[in-house]
Known about the structure:
The protein is built from six helices and 29 strands. It is mainly beta. Among the domains are: about 1-40 and about 325-420 and about 460-510, no CATH class; about 175-195 and about 210-325, no CATH class. It has a five-stranded antiparallel beta sheet, with no helix packed on it. A four-stranded antiparallel beta sheet has the order 2-29-28-27. A four-stranded antiparallel beta sheet has the order 3-4-5-6, with no helix packed on it. A hairpin with a 6-residue loop joins strand 17 and strand 18. The radius of gyration is 21 Å and the shape is globular. The termini are close together. The model is unreliable at about 1-20 and about 420-510 (pLDDT under 50).
Amino acid sequence: xxxxxxxxxxxxxxxxxxxxxxxxxxxxxxxxxxxxxxxxxxxxxxxxxxxxxxxxxxxxxxxxxxxxxxxxxxxxxxxxxxxxxxxxxxxxxxxxxxxxxxxxxxxxxxxxxxxxxxxxxxxxxxxxxxxxxxxxxxxxxxxxxxxxxxxxxxxxxxxxxxxxxxxxxxxxxxxxxxxxxxxxxxxxxxxxxxxxxxxxxxxxxxxxxxxxxxxxxxxxxxxxxxxxxxxxxxxxxxxxxxxxxxxxxxxxxxxxxxxxxxxxxxxxxxxxxxxxxxxxxxxxxxxxxxxxxxxxxxxxxxxxxxxxxxxxxxxxxxxxxxxxxxxxxxxxxxxxxxxxxxxxxxxxxxxxxxxxxxxxxxxxxxxxxxxxxxxxxxxxxxxxxxxxxxxxxxxxxxxxxxxxxxxxxxxxxxxxxxxxxxxxxxxxxxxxxxxxxxxxxxxxxxxxxxxxxxxxxxxxxxxxxxxxxxxxxxxxxxxxxxxxxxxxxxxxxxxxxxxxxxxxxxxxxxxx
Length: 512
C-alpha cells in the first residue's frame, strides 16, 4: 500500500482534470438504461455522504469539514472536526440516525488531531452529534460512542452503517504493510487477528454507544491478546480482556460496509495488500482471514482456529478480484429500487478506486454470496470512495476528486411491490423536486424513512424495496473470481486510465 490520502492525494491531484470528467456508462445496457450527471461539484477531497430524509445531503471531507447540500443545490458549511490528515487519516465516514426526523442526530467517524487529544493509540473515534435547523453542527452535543482505535499510519477504516437499531463500524489494521502475499511467513501486522483491540475489525454498538448483549465477545473474560506493536506475533496462550464491541475480525481495511435490510447481512469491501481485493459477507463472531489469508489464498483455513473462541476456520470472502486488475476496492450495496428495470434491480454495485470502475455482481438467491462469473462493467468513474442510493432511488457515487455523481434510470418502471424495509419514522413528504435528490411526492404518510411510499416516491435513506430476482445475464467476462473459480483474464484498463503509478504506490499504502 502507498501513503494514500497523503502522498497518494498529491499524485491524484495531478489527474483531477481528467478524472473529474471521466464518469461514463458502459456501452450496452448500462448506457441504454441510465443517465449519469454530476450532482455536486467543487468539493475538496470528500470521503463519504448520506441523504437526510428531506433530500439534503451531508458530506464529510478528509480535512474534517462537513458540508450540507441543500435541496436547492447550494452548499452550507456545517462545521469542522479537528482531524489528523496524515496519510489516509481525516474525516472518513458519516451516517444518519434512523430517528433523524425527531432527534436530528448524525454519526461521524474521524481521526482526532493530536492537538485536540488524539494519539496514535487513540486516533479514530465514532461520535454522534446534532445538526441544527440552520445546517450547522451543534458541537455542544458531540458524544463519543467508540474510541481507542489505533491510527499511527494508514489502513484507517471509516465505514459506518446503521442496520436496524445497531451501528456497524469498519476499521483498519493500522498499516505496517508487508508488501507480500498473505500468510504467516509474510505477516507484518497482527492487530486484525487478536481480540483485545478494535483495529482490523467490524465493530457493532447500540445507537447510544453501549454494547449489545448479543455481541460475540460480550460474555467472555479472556481472549487472544495483541502485543504492544503491530509486528508482535500473538500467541494463543497469551490472553487479555476482550474488546466487547467487536462483531467480526480478520480484516485488513474495512473501508466501506453496508447492512442489507432484507437479510440482516453485512457486506464489507476489504482493501487488500498485493494479491486480492475482497468483498465479504460478514459472519458474526468469526475470523475473516487477514493476515493469514486474502482472497482464497494463504495459510490453510484452519489457521484461524487459534484466534477464534469457538475454534472455527477462516471465513473466505464471497468475491475476490485479483491484482493488478483491481487495487483498492470500495464496497457498495445491493440496489433494490422498485422503479429500476429487473435487469439491474437486486444487483450489488461496488467500485475500485484505482481501476476507476464501478461494477455489478449478482447476489445469490439467499443474498449471502454472489454468483460466480457475474461481474459486469457498469461505469467508468474515477476515485470512487463511497456508493449509496438516494431518496429518489437513484445510485450516487462520490469521487475523492470533488464530485458526487448521480446514476438515474431513463425510464423508471411503475413500482408495484411494497417496500420490504423498516417502517418510516420521518414526516410526510413536502414536494421536493427530483432535481435535488428528492422526489415529487404526494404528501402522504411515509413508510420507509420519511418520504411518500405510494409506489413512485423515494426511500428515506435506506433502500428497502423487495424488488424481483436479479438479472441472470452474466456475460462479459470477469478477470476476477469468486474464490475457488479460475481467474483467466485481465484488463489493461489501468494503464489506459493513466493510473499505473498510482496502483504501484497503492501497494504500499492505498488511498484509503
